[in-house]
Each structure stands twice: as C-alpha cells, then as structure tokens.
C-alpha cells in the first residue's frame, strides 16, 4: 500500500494500492476490452451516464472538498471552487457528447458522396498531477468518455484519494469497469506499460515538461495521439493606464491560488515604472490580509506547499534572487507555522538574469520586475521557453489587441486573473505543450476523422 500524507502535518490521510505490473497490465486489458461496447453506445446513453455521475458527485461536494483539503492542503473554499470547476467539465461534455458532428463535402466525382465522420480514437491513458486532484480527473475522464473512448488514469501519488473517490461515484453512476480504470504504484513502470502498449491510442498528460517529453519519446514507437499540458512561466503585466486596484486584486487571487502551485500562476510580475511603488504597496496590503493556515475552514487561506522538495525549490529561488540584489518587501522565508508552510513573499528589483525568471516557482512568491515600454515588456514576456498563459491589465483597446496578437502563449487573459472554465480551450504553445482541454476543441483531441467515399451511386 502507499500512504498518502497530509501536507499540513504529515499525518496519514489514507492509503491506496501499489499495483503490481500484473495488475496494471490487467487494468490496461480491461480498458481495451471495454472499448468496442462503450464506443457503440448511443451518444445520448453516454451523455446520460455522465450526467448521472455529475448528479451523484454534486450531491456530495462537501465530502470531496474535505478529502481534497486533507490530501492536498488547499483550503476548503478553494477545494469547493475546484469542484465547481471540475464538475463543469462533466456537465459540459455530457452535453457535448451529442454534438460530435461530421461533414459532407461536395463530391469531386460523378455519382459519389463524400462523408466525413468523427470516431473515438480508442482506449486512452492519462497521467495527472496533484495540484488539482479533482478537476484533473473529471476533465480528462468526461472528455474521453463523451467522445466514446475508454480511459485508464494514473493519478499523482500525492493525491490519489480524491481520484479513487471519483471512481467510486463513477461506478455508482453506471460507468463500468474497463470504461474508466485507475492504477497507482510505480509511475515509471506504469508510464512504460501504457506508452508501449499499441492498443492505447492516446495519452493525455498534465505535469512537468521533463516528464511530458519523456512520455512523448516513449510513445513514439506506438505513434499515439498526445495532449500535453506542461509547465508555465506566466507573465503578469500591469500598464500605467490600468485600474490598479483591479490589477492588484487579480494578481493576488491568481497568485495565491493553491499557494502558487498552479501551472497558470503568475510567475513574473511586470509593472510599468511610473506605477511600480503604488502597485507593490497595494499588493502588499492585500497579501497581508490573507491568513496562512491549514484549510479546513470557510475562508480563503494560504496553505502549505505539497512536500519538502517544493519548499526547498522555493527557498532556493528566493535566496538566489536576494543574493543577486532583489529586495524582499514581504516574507522571504519559511512561515512561522513551520512544516511545509512558506510565507507569502514579494520581491522587487528582480531582473531577467535571476534564476527565478526562467523557473516555474510553484509557491506563494511575487517576483516584481520594472518595465518602461510596451515593446520592451512584450519582448521580455516572450523571453521564456514556456507559452501557457499571459495576463495583462490595460484600458487601452489598441494595446489590448496588440498584446493578444503578439504574446506567444496559448491563452492571453486581459484585465482578469481568472482563466479556466469548461467552455474555453485551455492549453499552451512552445515548451508548455500542445493540444487543448475544455470547449468543443477539447473533444477533438479524442476523435479521429474518417473520410468515406461512396461512389457508384448513379
Ligand atoms: P510534479 O513535479 O508537478 O509532480 P511530474 O511531471 O513529476 O510533476 O508529475 C506529474 C505526474 O507524472 C504524476 O502523476 C507523476 O507520478 C507522473 N510521473 C512522474 N515521472 C513519471 C515517469 N517517469 N513516467 C510516468 N509518469 C511519471
């Protein structure tokens, strides 16, 4: 068995099985065996089952939220927010299942018809991270099942309990064995088994760029379709024509979500020189109002980081910035609560030469950079190997459009700190990956296009 610790105090929240190679192979076999029957169900039947899953989980949100607080450390308010977000995908794809339309194309030959249909790619596999233990599962499972695929998931070792609870509710909703399978154990072994199995037609991975590339390499022999949601290094740009209060609030909410452990977390805050001090002061006031605590209460708090490795990484990045001339305006150390709590930290006079500029922080740290002109800041925002999301605040319409056009990322969020919902395409470019999740684009990742020519009709 694998123990799942609570990041707040290290106590054991629960255990999951460490599946053997034999058990993982058997689960893959079941996922493949279930595909023909599941894919042949009427779209409406799959939709009704997904809707049932949505209803059952919706009736028990509180139990899911409390479990997520204990295994992930995020506060109850955030956990409940994640559940709304995650359930949104089940609802959306229960509906979308019925709308996987094809085309007819004007024929190129006399007495013929050209028909284009969309078919599920086949059995798929997914590997998920720990930062959204609920939403990561629902987003991948709902999309796959809606398209007519069956799916096997390996959740993160840190947060498998929420995932297994979702599986339990899925069974109660009538999602049978094989259609949705879950395995836990050695990630390296499981990764090898699913990537080398030719019957698995697609991998949907969310996690680090390093592991994403490894899985893509491992899958090359069996030529799988891939969706890769990898790391980010989001710029958050505040121009002097913006509403400073809104920008400060947007930044704090986006940054402190999940204690900064989010791939779309603002990672580089660029503030135009003329408003720099005023903006930093306001952000500091807002951050100081938010308590740092364990999260089993009804208010927003900054929780612990997920594990000791995460704490060391944040410490190292902040220490490096300080040693190279950054100003520590707030925090800059472990929080007095001890354990895995890191104090919310604001750094100013950060420069592009520091390690923190090119590294995904994954902690409650606001590195603030100064800039002078739009052209300069766009070039600096793009000066990263990642391209997941960029945020900017401005009230200049022309500038807003220029940012949307010139920033190299899969998502550009203007005058808001909030990105995701089920109806929009989430995903990145460059080393942040490829493929989209959510919206009607999301289901395209799970289907293949079939062209049928019907000749000899005259
Ligand atoms: P993080 O650093 O955020 O945990 P990872 O990319 O290491 O990001 O982990 C994301 C997911 O990938 C987790 O479920 C983890 O178990 C899995 N994982 C890590 N290494 C491998 C590997 N070599 N093969 C397959 N899966 C892996």
UniProtKB/TrEMBL annotation:
Instruction: Name a single GO biological process.
Output: gamma-aminobutyric acid catabolic process
Domain of life of the organism encoding this protein: Bacteria
Organism of derivation: Paraburkholderia monticola
Q: Which PANTHER family does this one have?
A: CYTOPLASMIC ALDEHYDE DEHYDROGENASE (EUROFUNG), SUCCINATE-SEMIALDEHYDE DEHYDROGENASE, MITOCHONDRIAL
Residue span of the signal peptide, if any?
none
What are the catalytic residues? 229
Gene3D superfamilies referenced in this protein's UniProt entry, alphabetically? Aldehyde Dehydrogenase, Chain A, domain 1, Aldehyde Dehydrogenase, Chain A, domain 2
For this UniProt record, the keywords arranged alphabetically read as follows: Oxidoreductase
Question: What is the protein name stated in its UniProt record?
Answer: NAD-dependent succinate-semialdehyde dehydrogenase
Entry similarity comment: Belongs to the aldehyde dehydrogenase family.
Q: Which CDD domains match?
A: ALDH_F5_SSADH_GabD
Q: Which InterPro entries match?
A: Ald_DH/histidinol_DH (IPR016161), Ald_DH_C (IPR016163), Ald_DH_CS_GLU (IPR029510), Ald_DH_N (IPR016162), Aldehyde_DH_dom (IPR015590), Aldehyde_DH_Superfamily (IPR050740)
Per UniProt, residues of the Aldehyde dehydrogenase domain are: 2-451
Q: Which PROSITE patterns match?
A: ALDEHYDE_DEHYDR_GLU (PS00687)
